[in-house]
Amino acid sequence: MTKRSVISAGATLLAMSMALSACGTRGGDGGGDGAGSGGGGDEKVVKIGVIAPLSGDLSALGKGIENSVDLAVKEANESGELEGWKIEVAAEDDQANPDVGKNAASKLAGDKDVIGVVGTLNSSVAGTVAPVLNTAKIVEVSPANTGVSLTKGEDPDNPQRPYANYFRTCTTDAVQGPFAARYLFEKAGIKEVATIHDKKAYGQGLVESFTSEFEKLGGKVVAAETINPDDDKYDAVVTSVKAKNPKAVYYGGEYPQAGPLSQQMKAQGLDVPLMGGDGIFSPEFVKLAGKNSNGDLATSIGAPTEKLDSAKAFVDAYEAGGYSDPYEAYGAQSYDAANAIIEAMKVSLKDADDVEGARQATIDAMKDVSFDGATGKVAFDEFGDTTTRVLTAYEVKDGKWTDVSTEEFTEK
User: What sequence ranges are listed for the domain Leucine-binding protein (predicted)?
Assistant: First the structure.
């Protein structure tokens, strides 16, 4: 991997002081107005929306996103980064459902004070949210969408950016799938795998990119199966896969299904590692998979947050903020996404009289955003993708995820 920029000791202490000041009276969950204690009565209001699953099976990830945005907003308000403006957070629950997400996007688009949105978690939800926000000229920065087509369109050989308003602080499946394939083939020494996905955009895309790279390396996919994400029993699929004698199972999907799938694999004697992408990288997976999850694997975007010098101020401020939910897999990326919007707002709102008139200017300003964030250098390429291509492989050891390999992905 490439080492991220290390915050100097003085800068870190200053950031900590600001963060703790902003969060010291928090004492509860995120999702407030993010007002902090600074500013006067003449300030104008601008809102950063959040669209994420705040209820349901994926709410652990969604709350981490919401709280991390809330923290970034509180710090910005406390430090007075947008003179004359107070930032508020407008959080909407998409329930990990594309239709619900579209309605959430329409609600935020109709709010004249909303200038940007952090979200979504699910690539399938982004497919309905991004066009709504694009039409309203509201910038969107996702901390978690990995579907390639969101930034490069449906034809990988002729990439065309479909949404000028859309950016992301995470790497894509075009990187994550091959990274996992190389880990299994080259480092774990596994040459034969079975693949299973949940038929959703994220899971299918991840398996496709994994399979392409694994076979290119010389590996063999001995079985390719799918599950219904609404089911909780996978006996037929496990039986079919077990008959092919794979040395690992690569799963495209999220932890609510991956955990029970792993548990049922082991119960039926298919005692091989289950590996997935960032969608299974959560303590919730280990809870669902049970005691036999040791040895299961996952990849996730970026380097481990708790090991980054650049993320220390974020981690400490989040813990001091009194949030009842952990920042989870996408906290640092969400914090950076919110701060990217705030950086763009420094340009777009400088001489603006109202928010709606500054929406397009915010999208334009995002193209030039570049700063040292919690995850390292934050910047975007011509498609709106992050310029950072660092990923980490994790293994469940003694009942918890442990990082085993962090690298910057390069094409071969």
Answer: 46-399
